[in-house]
Amino acid sequence: xxxxxxxxxxxxxxxxxxxxxxxxxxxxxxxxxxxxxxxxxxxxxxxxxxxxxxxxxxxxxxxxxxxxxxxxxxxxxxxxxxxxxxxxxxxxxxxxxxxxxxxxxxxxxxxxxxxxxxxxxxxxxxxxxxxxxxxxxxxxxxxxxxxxxxxxxxx
Length: 155
Description:
- This protein has 2 domains: about 15-45; about 50-155, Tetratricopeptide repeat domain (Serine Threonine Protein Phosphatase 5, Tetratricopeptide repeat, Alpha Horseshoe).
- By secondary structure, it is mainly alpha-helical.
- The protein has helices spanning about 15-45, 50-60, 65-80, 85-100, 100-115, 120-125, 140-155.
- It is globular, with a radius of gyration of 17 Å.
- Helices cover about 70% and strands about 0% of the residues.
- α2 packs antiparallel against α3, α3 runs antiparallel to α4 and α4 packs antiparallel against α5.
C-alpha cells in the first residue's frame, strides 16, 4: 500500500534555491509525520545512553570539534550494540573526512548507504566535506547505490 500525500502547489516570487529548500523541509515534515510510529518504536529499542551521547556529539559537530564529536559518536554506536541512526553515521563520516581519515569516512558511508538505504543523492554528492573522497575507488559505486536507493524508495 502506497502512502498518498496531497500535493500543495505554492505560487510565489521565491527564487528557485529557496523554493527547493522549502520543498525539502516540507518533505521531511511529511515523512516524519508519516513515520512517527516507526520512529517511536525505534527509539524504544535504543540503548538509554545513545541519545545523550549523540546529543553531545551533535553539539561538538556543530562547533566543528570533529575529533571530539567523532569519538563521542563512536562511543554511542558502541553502547548501542554497533547500531546508529543514519544522521549520526553521516555526521561521523563527515567528521572522519574532515580529519582526513578517509577509510573511516568510507566505512561509515558504506553502512548508511547499504544497510540504511541512504537515498539523499543531492546532499551527499554536493557535501563539500566529502570532496576528498571523490577520487576514492568506492565513491562512484556509492553514488550509483544512493541513486538506486532513491529509485527503490519511490517504487
